[in-house]
Amino acid sequence: MAIQDTDTTARPGFLRSFIDHPASVNETYLQHAGFAFGFAARLFLASMAALIHAVIPPLFETTASRMIRQMHARIEARHTNAGR
What we know:
mainly alpha; elongated; single chain
């Protein structure tokens, strides 16, 4: 026996957030998803560089921190541009 979701009051706000949040940075849902997936991939690469650096310190000495600084700058620019 399946349990049915009868709470219809929460659903519109939740579904609306799929549009409202991307719109807050002047993007469509798909544009925002693409940015987020790309960001996740860069975070993964930065974490791999940090892990390798932990085992072999001469490798990737500044890679992870540089990537994180670049990602932070990109996020800040998006928030600045969204305020226009």
